[in-house]
């Protein structure tokens, strides 16, 4: 498919507030929508908020649902399968066995009953659940959602989802091939790691977050990945993992290297303490990801069903015990932001608790 220019994308994803938009009353007698086709989504939204996301918590199910939006969409190939079509759920017996999708079977099985009891395709549900889920995270953007993806016709091919031990060259090439993602857009997609954690990269430490604030959609991830660390030799137990100076925190090899690669380092650094850019760019690139394999003109804009996330007004700070001297800066073109350091002794980052 062809994608609009970035400038057009950024304008599309901005919700219109200046104009008065006519809304229709939904049959439930409670909600209104800009399009009657979106009315059924309110019941689905309320169901998953209560029964999948624990009443609206930015926790493990939100993290995993967001991960699923990416793994389902990016696994696009030339065999007619893949893209944001729900193939990860329909062909779960095949796709969840791919090495890159390790551990994703849990959220796939959790989402299946919701699809079974609602009138929604798997491709729509995966993207809808991701957008609703992230709305529970303070600081997150309000993601767009378009309705009308057909059922998948084939499983996505194997080896189409990038892995944390892949080289930067390989990762950039795969994203470009999958959907024409530019180098900076790859960095934008990795904004998702601000609320991410890993269970199986190193199975001995499940629920290990990628930054010290996994329940907040903030810029700490882009700061903490630039603190000095050591690359593991790639043994079986920690392949794709990089030692973090923060005890209890994990850094993926791919994140570590993208933060230091000359093609991506300055874009990476640009997000440190820049909350507005963080939310704006993630909103834009997630729209592009969610439309892989589809034409936006064939779908219905139901973005107004997505809840407005809580605001976040905090600042990025060095964790206690760390300063600018601990930064391994790779962007020579721009000075590193001036940041305060949290008070107190060095502390450990707590794991993300299972639901």
UniProtKB/TrEMBL annotation:
Residues 66-306 form the Plant heme peroxidase family profile domain. It comes from the Eukaryota. Belongs to the peroxidase family. Ligninase subfamily. Transmembrane segments: none annotated. Disulfide bonds join 26-39, 38-302, 58-137, 266-331. Heme b binds at residue 193. This is Peroxidase. One of its GO terms (molecular function) is peroxidase activity. It comes from Meripilus lineatus. PROSITE patterns: PEROXIDASE_2, PEROXIDASE_4. GO terms for biological process: cellular response to oxidative stress; hydrogen peroxide catabolic process; lignin catabolic process; response to reactive oxygen species. It holds the Pfam family Peroxidase_ext.
